Amino acid sequence: MTYYKNTFDQKLAAGELWLQFCATCQKFVFYPRSLCPSCWQPLTDWKPVSGRGHVHSYTIVNISVLPEFKEKTPYIYALIELEEGFRMPSSLINCPLDEVEVGMPVQITFIDRDSKTLPVFKPRERTVAEAISL
Ligand SMILES: [Zn+2]
Q1: Residue 36 CA, ligand 1 centroid: distance in Å
Q2: Distance from residue 32's CA to the centre of ligand 1 (Å)
Q3: Ligand 1 center to residue 130 CA distance, Å?
Q4: Which residues surround ligand 1, an ion (CB under 5 A)?
Q5: In angstroms, what is the span from residue 86 Cα to ligand 1's centroid?
Q6: Which CATH architecture has domain 50-134?
Q7: pTM to 2 decimals?
Q8: For the segment 76-100, what is each residue's pLDDT rounded down to a tens digit?
Q9: Could you tell me what percent of the chain has a pLDDT over 70?
Q10: 27: CA distance to ligand 1 center in Å?
Q11: Residues 6+ away with beta carbon under 8 Å from 113
């Protein structure tokens, strides 16, 4: 587990999101693990992902029982669906609480906390293809 987590964290520290990629299924796998959850083959490849996606679902956290998050309330906690076809839970920053909505286009960004780099998301403009499909 340490190997998988270290690779993931090292790429985050460099400002990039890399995920394991199953060569058999031709799919990205999130979260890091030793075997593909679909075909059970060992996962050895890593590839960078775009970091672009949209809000699949979200909640606004008003009360946090975790001390490290109490000062940040209220904040948006969202399930992000990335272009590469997987969903990732994360915080949504730089977004007024009354503007978040399902389908909102977002882009990954990174924050430093307690000497670790964490992936979070922020709103972005729709691409031309996204605007046409509306
Ligand atoms: Zn697979």
Answers
A1: 5
A2: 13
A3: 29
A4: 22, 24-25, 36, 38-39
A5: 14
A6: Beta Barrel (2.40)
A7: 0.86
A8: 999 999 999 889 999 999 999 999 9
A9: 96
A10: 7
A11: none
Q: What is the pLDDT of residue 4?
A: 65
Range(s) within the chain of domains with CATH label 2.40.50: 50-134
Question: Can you tell me the distance from the alpha carbon of 77 to that of 102, in angstroms, rounded to the nearest whole number?
Answer: 12
C-alpha span between 19 and 124 (Å, rounded): 22
Mean pLDDT, residues 107-114 = 92
CA 6 to ligand 1 center in whole angstroms = 21
Mean per-residue pLDDT of the chain: 90
